[in-house]
């Protein structure tokens, strides 16, 4: 976590901003999360321990985290941006349940290799990619 704190500190310093106590609290809470969270969900988590931190501060801090590469913004079609912690060098894809909204992360080296083969076939350089598969999770399929 200290490496990510340093990345954030350097980035906001380059932007002419300060690492305030509020930003540090938001950063720490964000880095502890394991799920995809909306700004509202992170705000509610932060507010439980730090009621003085406002929604706008959480929103702006999440934007800064995305700009510096520590967070990834995701829109899984529900009309709401979700954020996840970025782990450099680790790629994963998503299964999204269209019934309950559950998001399942997965990694499959065969899919990654196939994407590389397709790119090579078309003389295409991949810079980034994402795979999102929409359907019904096992809980929703059994009901």
* SS strand fraction: 15-25%
Largest beta sheet: strand ordering: 4-3-5
**Sheet bearing the most strands, described?**
3 strands, mixed
Nearest-integer average pLDDT = 88
Order of helices and strands: HHHHEEEEHEH
The rough form would be described as flat
CATH homologous group name of the largest domain? Winged helix-like DNA-binding domain superfamily/Winged helix DNA-binding domain
Q: Helical element count? A: 6
Low-confidence stretches: none
The strand count comes to 5
CATH architecture of the largest domain: Orthogonal Bundle
| Gap from first CA to last CA | 40 Å
**Over the alpha carbons, how many angstroms does the gyration radius reach?**
18 Å
SS-based structural class? alpha+beta
Remind me, CATH topology of the largest domain?
Arc Repressor Mutant, subunit A
- CATH class membership of the largest domain: Mainly Alpha
Report the helical percentage: 40-55%
Count of individual domains: 2
Would you kindly provide a brief summary of this structure?
This protein has 143 residues and is an alpha+beta fold. It is built from 6 helices and 5 strands, in the order ααααββββαβα. α2 packs across α3, α2 crosses α4 and α3 (39-49) packs across α4 (55-67).
Written overview of the protein:
With 143 residues, the chain is an alpha+beta fold. The protein has two domains: 2-85, Winged helix-like DNA-binding domain superfamily/Winged helix DNA-binding domain (Arc Repressor Mutant, subunit A, Orthogonal Bundle); 93-141, Dna Ligase, domain 1 (2-Layer Sandwich). Helices cover 46% and strands 16% of the residues. The strands form two sheets. Strands 4-3-5 form a three-stranded mixed beta sheet, with no helix packed on it. The protein has a two-stranded antiparallel sheet with strand order 1-2. Helix 2 crosses helix 3, helix 2 (21-32) crosses helix 4 and helix 3 crosses helix 4. The longest helix has 13 residues, at 2-14. The radius of gyration is 18 Å and the shape is flat. The termini are far apart.
């Amino acid at each position: 976590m200290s490496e990510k704190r340093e990345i954030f500190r350097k980035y906001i310093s380059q932007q002419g901003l300060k690492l305030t106590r509020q930003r540090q609290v938001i950063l720490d809470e964000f880095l502890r999360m394991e799920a995809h969270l909306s700004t509202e969900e992170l705000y509610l988590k932060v507010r439980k321990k730090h009621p003085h931190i406002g929604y706008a501060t959480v929103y702006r801090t999440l934007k800064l985290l995305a700009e510096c590469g520590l967070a990834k913004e995701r829109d899984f079609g529900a009309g709401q941006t979700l954020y996840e912690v970025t782990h450099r060098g680790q790629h994963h894809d998503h299964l999204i349940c269209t019934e309950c909204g559950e998001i399942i992360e997965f990694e499959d080296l065969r899919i990654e290799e196939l994407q590389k083969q397709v790119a090579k076939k078309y003389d295409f350089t991949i810079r980034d990619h994402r795979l999102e598969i929409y359907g019904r999770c096992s809980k929703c399929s059994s009901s």
